[in-house]
């Protein structure tokens, strides 16, 4: 074959292979967009594990009519404009790839309304790079993205989808992670018309605890201690599961660095060491922890989909986590023993 340029739709579909491998990854991208738009209320409607429909509505800034088509175009973003911006980026997205990728492998509709506008505008895509011109649509301030028939035009991908239940569980996990990272955002989700989450904004410590119970479980909340520690330029806080709440799998471990959920070898290792003496071999602790640090000391955007993170001073972070958690676990046990003895 001669060398030739790939058509835009194919370019987007190739990119979609990296960003969108299942319904849950669509949800992750759309949720991040809603948060980047400053939304404090997000509603999700899911049908058939997301394969039939994923609709996400937010009350964020909205997208002006003349930018709607751009939002669905590749490498178009409102989040950075220069290398300088890239180095300081605080938003969850910045690559301008998610919407065009999703639009290239689904039937996507985006409806949006900005603060100044009386009504909204809607744009449809059907897997091709061409979009209709925006049509007027009733919509309060914010954005609704509707994704139907994911992978309808990519049979090879569709084959890799698992059962409705499995795909839904992946979606739920993405929503859990978000719900724990943003107590200030109300989140509602329906699956096949049935309410799954209805989380109000949680401003007080008590309300945050309630959210942790709703998202993880009552049992976790009851068998965990709220900890907070500051030192070495780092701050660590959150809910630390008691050794008695250990699990057969590492399936209730939420660790956030500057608000972004990460799964990181260094973090896992530090946590494992901290629990080492109090957990049976093969058991895993449960926790919801937040590490806050100077953004310059950490790169959380190493990979678009993976939850990788790079610490500038990884030794310092590792030792801080190990030491602080170990002390917190010991302190909680001492407290529990004293409580039991009283
Ligand atoms: P990125 O998030 O990397 O910028 P996306 O393809 O996810 O790329 O989105 C493209 C652009 O569309 C964003 O930069 C933003 O301006 C706009 N956008 C997407 N979703 C929303 C939303 N829910 N509310 C407001 N603007 C949005
Ligand atoms: Mg995005």
UniProtKB/TrEMBL annotation:
GO terms for biological process: mismatch repair. Residues 212-330 form the DNA mismatch repair protein S5 domain. The keyword DNA repair applies. One of its GO terms (cellular component) is mismatch repair complex. The keyword Protein transport does not apply. One of its GO terms (molecular function) is ATP-dependent DNA damage sensor activity. Keywords: DNA damage, DNA repair. This protein is involved in the repair of mismatches in DNA. It is required for dam-dependent methyl-directed DNA mismatch repair. May act as a 'molecular matchmaker', a protein that promotes the formation of a stable complex between two or more DNA-binding proteins in an ATP-dependent manner without itself being part of a final effector complex. Belongs to the DNA mismatch repair MutL/HexB family. This is DNA mismatch repair protein MutL. The lineage of its organism: Bacteria, Pseudomonadati, Pseudomonadota, Gammaproteobacteria, Chromatiales. The gene is mutL.
